[in-house]
Amino acid sequence: MPDDREAVVAVQNAIKKWGKYELAYKPEDADLILLVRKGRIVATQPQMRLGKSSTTPWEVSRAAPVNAGDARDMLAMFEAEKGLDGPALWRNFVSGGLDAPDVQLVQQLRKAVEEAAKVP
After folding, report:
1. pLDDT class of 58 with cuts at 50, 70, 90
2. Distance separating alpha carbons of residues 24 and 60, to the nearest angstrom
3. Most buried residue among 50, 55, 58, 93 by CB atoms closer than 10 A?
């Protein structure tokens, strides 16, 4: 989705500005994974499907699979070793939280990382 791609760029820019982490462009070089998802209530992707019909042997119909989800933006951090099937180290949802230039969710992640670093 275009909104997700824009959000990824905003997160990448915010991570670079923060300076705590370096971006890895190869999966084998990553220690952490950030999962970025722009909020949406419903998104559809038109496609063609063939299905049997009682009137014709095959009927072409238009179908639109629905991708429904939380209306809020989401950012989550995972250990690369465990992947996205492992537990999230951190996850939060905020309406407009992936919008540049503030990228509120990266600011919240930064605060959580800095707070965790203070704990002995």
Report:
1. very low
2. 44
3. 93
- Using CA atoms, how far apart are residues 112 and 8, in angstroms rounded to an integer? 20
The pTM score is 0.76
Name the burial class of residue 94, with classes exposed (0-12), middle (13-18) and buried (19+) by CB atoms within 10 angstroms of its CB. Answer: middle
Residue showing tokens 């952490």: 32
Of 29-33, 41-45, 63-67, which one has max mean pLDDT?
A: 29-33
Identify which has the larger pLDDT, 112 or 60.
112
The residues pairing with 16 across neighbouring beta strands, listed in sequence order, are: none
> With the CA atoms of 28, 32, 33 and 36 taken in that order, what torsion angle do they form, in degrees rounded to the nearest 10?
-150
Contact criterion met (CB below 8 Å) for 78 and 94: no
Q: Which amino acid, 99?
A: D
Q: Six-digit token pair at 55?
A: 């009137």
List the domain boundaries for the chain: 2-38+73-118
Stretch (H or E) spanning 62: strand 59-63
**Of 120, 111, 117, 108, which Cα lies nearest the Cα of 74?**
108
